Amino acid sequence: AVVSTQSGHYGRAEKIAIVGSGLIGRSWAVLFARGGYRVVLYDVKEELMTQAMGVIETQLRSLHESNLLLGKDPAECFSRVSTCDSLSSTVEGAILLQECVPEDLGLKKKVFTELDSMVSDTTILSSSTSCIVPSKFTESLSHRANCIVCHPVNPPHYCPAVEVIPAPWTSGHVKEKTISIMKQIGMKPVVAKKECDGFILNRLQYAVLQESWRLVEDGVCDPEDIDTVMTGGLGLRWSFIGPFETIHLNAPGGVRDYCERYSDGIVRVSNTFGEPRPLTGETLEKVTEYLEGYVPMEKHKDNLEWRDGVLKQLAVFKQSMPDKP
Predict the structure, then answer these.
(1) Three-class SS state of 146
(2) pLDDT, tens digit (0-9, with 9 covering 90-100), for 74-89
(3) Distance between CA atoms of 31 and 156, rounded to whole angstroms?
(4) CA 114 to chain centre
(5) CA distance 117 to 109
(6) Which residues contact 316 (CB under 8 A, 6 or more apart)?
């Protein structure tokens, strides 16, 4: 049921269950609470849930201060979040369960098998996995048609893209309902038409990382040059237009003109990429030396907070960006 916004309550009263209270689980709790859902958080360790509640409350206040809480009241949002030490009670009555356990196939199989025996026939079973296709851990489940992946970008409360990956047997209703819920909580779902190892985001990220590694390993440039090309070049454009829109705007006649002009050169250069390089050896030492000098481990937590602060400012700026003509 939709709760009237006139009384200070927002959005929907349905229940969302979250299994795993780490970084991603906490962020999902913030997003679902912001979207008006009642959130129940479960973890095997009570102290982790207690820590998570403190972080969730802080994040909600921070989003509100930056006008990123979709006009909601942070205290009202936080009042919809609770913890539970019983997995069966956590999942009972939930319209969607978001799994946020560590990235391990064996653990995913164990958790989903356990959940399969508890959930109703209408509960969506969603995994936060970043790379494991859902067919690998849902095939034998009786509720496999309800299983799907929703992989967010870290940190999800500042990066709205979310990859939605159905299994071959995921029902069309479950896929559409999941997309609808993601949009309701302010996310931007990217829906894969079929399973693909690494999904979309990480395949793009790995392609850039591999070529970056290759350029350093082959002595073309230093690690800091790679970061500068991104932060002072490609990354600036890609933060508001993607690679396809970039090439469309980079040629007088648009994308067809660009491809006619540059396709042969792109193929020629791409043919020199070669096989993937392992992220080991002398290149790893060189990259590590650069990063430990520039971003020292003793300031790791400070730099994470700095990164999130900049992402927050970028999210605020993108809200105020002018519309395309």
Answers:
(1) helix
(2) 999 999 999 999 999 9
(3) 8
(4) 25
(5) 13
(6) 66, 67, 68
